Amino acid sequence: MRTSFFFLSVSLLLSIGFCSCQLAGQAVVQPPADRIHLSQAGYSLGGTKKAVILDGKPGPFFVISVAGDTAFSGKIGPALLWESAAQWAATADFSEWNEAGEYRLSVPQVGDSELFSIQEDANLMVARSLIRSLYFQRSSQALTEEFAGEWARGAGHPDTEVITHPSASTSARPSGSTAAYPGGWYDAGDYGKYTGPTAFVTWSLLHLLELGPKWKALSLNIPESQNQVPDVLDEAMVGLQYLLSLQDTTGAVPHKLTALHHAQLVMPEGDQDARYLIGMSTASTLTFVAATAQASRILRAYEADFPGLADRCLSASTLAWQWCIAHPDLKFKNPSDVSTGEYKDEFLEDEWAWAALELWLTTGDKQYRQLDRLFQVVQGRIPFYGDASWKAMLSLALHRDRLTAAEQGQWREQCLWRSEKMKGQARFNAYQVPLGMKEEDFNWGSNAIHARMGLWYLMSNVFVPKADFTTEAESVGEYLLGKNPLDLCFITDLGSRFPLNIHHRPSRADGVALPVPGLMAGGPQDVVKLQDCEVYPSKYPALRYLDEWCSYSTNEVAINWNANAILLFAWLGE
Fold first, then answer.
1. Distance of alpha carbon 295 from alpha carbon 299, whole angstroms
2. Which of 72, 144, 217, 557 has its CA at 20 to 30 Å from residue 331's CA atom?
3. CA angle 209, 216, 228 (to 5 degrees)
4. Is residue 191, in this structure, part of any structural domain at all?
């Protein structure tokens, strides 16, 4: 089935959107050849199980076992027109069927779907694939065949002589000085290492250790798997140790470590461009505060494995906090001689609230108990691109016993308002996702925004237990795994159709037919932001995606986008 997607990427995707007809006064895109869209990575026992039927008429559908028996039957729901995709689509809900196995969905007058599975831990397996992809993003380290298989490669970017750019200089680290900052993860499709995303990914992995015991037992098949430390913590240490190396004695943490310009299309070991510490920003330093404060809290239980590291993380976090107090609104902008990723952030109150919360949860110090600040950030808004407040909310949900009864009431009200608003938006499309009411909803990395909204549902379910919030979050997960207008699983090497030509230098330059596994493509994007390939397959935002190397607007990957999906499927897997 994977071979067929080579043809999909160059023919079918190019045809979606050019052929349309008029239906009820609306321009409607001719549906793809496969008119049954479902979760290609499978469904979990006991969870929501839905598929979307394009142009499906009212009538029955059947869940058929591999033996050809009818396991379940139901009725297709009413068709809805989603203007963001210009598709009429209806839902087939088979959530009541809870027997593990492989099945097809059969719809009279439409046809049969591909095989899909129902299994015990489908969400855990998706989360594992997303987490394991971080191993393939490791910098300064060779990936051996034992752990990387056909994606084995040499060690790139030792980062032993990194130059301090004038924009990153401090009294402790003068311009032009050199030092070693090895390790960490490549951020995206290029070879830069960015403080904010690294801190967020590190925090996300450590968050799993607070989420539940199954994540401590998860095997990732990485070089550290034979030690006595959870694999998730081993991978988090890749980011944490790198972050700690960045801080100088003033408390400052540079914005990024990159070359002056993006690398050529080469493997990591082939990139010989000089590397620089570049810039400072309050936003990236506050994410450092949040990650190291949280790490200190979690590493107390692993003192024997990492002696003194919990104390070091707390000292680093408080020192960085003090630097931020002295530089409360320093926004990063690329220097004139630098063209690598900027990660601009014009609103910093969300990062301040997140950093303060993690310090308070770790220390109990009242100076960091700034819940009113967090409430003001969260109040009246739905999670948007670049927002950090939802990360604070995830931590708060796991430590809600620290809140007073009155505060819990405040948070319940806010969670209910936001989740009900998102639910109201989701009811307008058969895919049941809250994005897509307006074109600009499909921002850069729209798949990560979808995941973030799914997480908000799940976090809300902690404060306001309502089964339908979990159902809404599961629909978001199904969207990312193939139940979407493109009929595409957005995570490489999962499902029968996934992106093959992601904007990711190792995947493009390694000579391997399939891309590095476990990476989530950014996803469809509104037309204003598209800036790379000459032709996109559709004018409709939910279809404005191209599985081509040139399409960094829609087909790049990023560790922080993966982290959103890691958290979503981990929470769904609990």
1. 6
2. 557
3. 120
4. yes
Cβ atoms of 310 and 294 within 8 Å: the answer is no
- Does the model's pTM come out above 0.90? yes
Residue 94 DSSP label = -
Q: How many domains does the chain have?
A: 1
Please report whether residue 546 resides in a domain: no
Render pLDDT for 360-371 as a digit per residue (tens, 0 to 9): 999 999 999 999
| pLDDT tens-digit map of 45-76 | 999 999 999 987 889 999 999 999 999 999 99
- The CATH code of the domain that includes 276 is 1.50.10.10
Q: Which domain holds residue 325?
A: 136-401
Distances (CA, A) of 461 to 53, 411, 418, 449: 29, 11, 12, 19
What contacts 24+ positions apart, CB below 8 Å, involve 329-335?
Answer: 329/282, 330/280, 330/281, 330/282, 331/281, 331/282, 331/283, 332/255, 332/279, 332/280, 332/281, 332/283, 332/284, 333/279, 334/278, 334/279, 335/165, 335/166, 335/167, 335/278, 335/279
Of 220, 216, 23, give the one whose Cα is nearest residue 135: 220
Residues 379-413 pLDDT 10s: 866 666 678 999 999 999 999 999 999 999 999 99
Whole-angstrom distance, CA of residue 148 vs CA of residue 268: 15
Kindly state whether residue 357 falls inside one of the protein's structural domains.
Answer: yes
Q: Specify if 261 maps to a domain.
A: yes
